[in-house]
Amino acid sequence: MNLSQLRFTSLLLTATMTSQLEPTDDHCSSSNGSDTSSSYYTTSRSGDMTHSSEDSYTDDGSSQSIDQHEVLRNEIDHCRYAQIDLVKFVQTVWGLDRSTCERILNLPLSLDASKIGDYKTNHKERLRRGIFAAFTESLLQDVQEHLQVPPKERVHGLWYAKRRPSRTRDSQTEPVLMGLWDPFPSKGRVPDWSVARHIIEMAPQVQPAVPLDEDQAKSSLSHQQTAPATTLLPLVSRASHDQGSDNSRSTQKRSRDASDDGSERDRKRRRLDEEYTDSHLQLASYAQDCLASTCRLWVTGLVIDGCKVSLTYFDRQLVATTSPFLFDKEPSKLALVLYAMGQCDRTKAGFDPHLRAWPSHTIEPITESMKRQLERPVESVIGSFIEFPAGTNDIPALPSSQPTLPSCFRVSGWILKPGALISRTTMIYKIQMLLEDKSLSRDDYALKLSWPPKSRTSEIDVLKELKKKLPTRLHAHLPDLQFATTFTAEDLCLPSLKLGLATLAPGPENHEPRVLRVLAMKYYHKLWTAGSIEGFKQTWLDCVECHHEAWKAGGILHQDLSENNLMVSRLGGKVSGLLNDWDLAVFVNTPEGKSTIHYRTGTPPFMAIELLDPLKFITYKPGHWYRHDLESFFYILVWAALHYNLKEGTRDKAVHPTLLPWISRDARRNALAKLTFGVPGDTVANWAFDSVKAEFEPLLKEWILPLRKLLRVARCSFEKAVGEYVPTDVYDYPTCGGILTFETFMATIGCPVRNWADGDLP
Q: Is 211 helix (H, G, I), strand (E, B) or coil?
């Protein structure tokens, strides 16, 4: 690397580290690959270019967390509800009957005044957790005594970590306080998020101000002449500082909102923002970890801020929080919460009933121990079974099969864990199918679970339509579905349906209803495992042609091309391409498709320039066009040439410095970097081309450079038409005046177009 490159890298990293992750809306990137390696980037679908954090990387290419609280705040801001009645929450979510709730609230309960005093005055988190756990255990036993619960049936309170967490608070992922099932873990063992019954966040206490000594006071006065001689130095934790910053931002927002309109809705929204503290965001991060660690539909938790307690419910479409109460003033409310948490069973805690320790139609004798396993969540998804009732498979069964049997899969590994809380949150497992003879399949499969918007076209319907309309030879380049089903919120009995959210701030339109979509398909491999440059080229070409036929003959546009969606299939030992993940695809000729196509959809490193930073003052209606996906295919080529080690079947862990702007959370910066990348003589582009992997050097001359020129010519033509306000009946904006089409794209790389309908060999 020469001196100019070093200077460029320094400037690039400095600029990149200042960018901020934009608000989360929907559609995380998903893959069906052969490993669990993290993704560098996220997928977007929004009218204002938003992201969701699916295994996010920082812009320097390293796998680190990036201001997770701010990401979560943006992600859940549009789907929060507050001021839910405590009793309604306990009844609806945890299943405690109303008469028991009222009975507990009327009990003559009290807390030990000395213990409450110790709790209020102790500022060491570990000790405060212990004090809180002790007096809540005593309170829980008191209420069970009043309710005459038999001793053998009584439950215990909260588990807490008796040691200091090993990580800093901002990157803390180990639980320190939670609700569990009896018996608690042995001393020194920290439970996993996958078995958390309830999650708890105890807000850090701000330590009292410490008076400055005489020398410190003089030093302070020399720097601040207006400060009084009795200046105090507060010892404030970072969490408290962050909370203060949030409050100042909230104040700024209040002044802006007040000038806009003083409606009741705005006042409710401002109050909601004020109530949602940094501790609530920390609890949300725990919820994200819980939901990502296992098959779970929802999770509930508590925020304890001094003596103030609020309960929160999280699922994949919304967050709902109760009105807070003070437990030192109303101990019966704390008793109600503790008792309801202890009585909450596996299902009411939100664990997916489809996840089991053993299959329902096992050939083994069912023991008491096996029965008890079904009462608790499984400790590890790997080795467990995911089972769906007979009749739920939307894929037609073979005549020889028994459709009366459940569809059952044994999880053998992770492929993808979701990195967001409210979004599509795709989760993919490596599985084996349980066959009719109760044996496991030799072949591996992938089970994909995601939460797309209910209004969105089903990936199942897209694939069915493609199989119906495309030539048979192309079917090998589409996912081979073995199982598919969809569950609505009503099917899953999500408690949020009965919380009365329509009457709460800020209104019934506050969240987008989602469905749980489940797909099982054959197991495919990552693009970088093609094995050779010939295998890579064949895979890429197969996907380009399959994509075109889907658009031309099937009337379906993919809209989310990335390195994770171009897969390697090895049927019969032959490498071929498979175009995967059609869950953001649209039917272009339907009213819904014509509406949806105006969203900017895709995975940022591979998104077209126009989608990242649309032009203004234009004479045409912008949309996601076919040529934008062609542009994505080009970016995948460049990305692969700089990161793939085909012989080893690996991908470089760090992003090449020249492409760091492509993973920026600043959409405009991403677009500008790609725009200059196409300019002849661009220093960054030349450095990138000098850094191409040896295996890809022939591809640089044959495909990458010619396609770069084609895209540049098309862009110049497009900008000229835009600048001159050429009307749409004179200039074809979707093809840049006919310059960028499938035919010109293929001709540029010197590849003949195969006639799939005539039976040419793929």
A: strand
